[in-house]
Design goal:
Number of helices: 2
Distance between the termini: 109 Å
Radius of gyration: 40 Å
Largest sheet: none
């Protein structure tokens, strides 16, 4: 444990005093120091946890955006395929007309 050379006097509310007194340690000074050290460790851990959660959120956002883009592209592709299907049906109709043998009785078909 570090040498304690700092002497400070603090004014605190009853609520804060009760909180400090309920913390682990022997006497007010040790309890207060243990509380501060605990908060320092927890702050570091929480910062790391927050950064990890931020990274997960960013990854999820990128995945959601990719899914949205994929759905949009799939819808566009479906529209294009439907249009191509209609074009193919028209072509099939024209091909059927062309393949139909000419009626010798009707000179307009020749």
């Amino acid at each position: 444990m570090a040498k304690k050379t700092n002497l400070k006097s603090v004014r605190i509310s009853d609520e804060v005093l009760t909180y400090i007194e309920n913390f682990e340690g022997n006497g007010f000074n040790q309890k207060f120091e243990n509380l501060v050290l605990f908060c320092m460790r927890e702050e570091k851990r929480k910062r790391i946890e927050i950064q990890n959660l931020d990274n997960l959120i960013n990854l999820r956002y990128k995945k959601d955006r990719a899914i949205f883009d994929l759905q949009r592209e799939a819808a566009l592709t479906i529209k294009q395929l439907i249009s191509m299907q209609h074009d193919l049906e028209k072509l099939q109709k024209y091909m059927n007309i062309i393949r139909t043998p000419a009626d010798p009785a009707n000179p307009a078909d020749n």
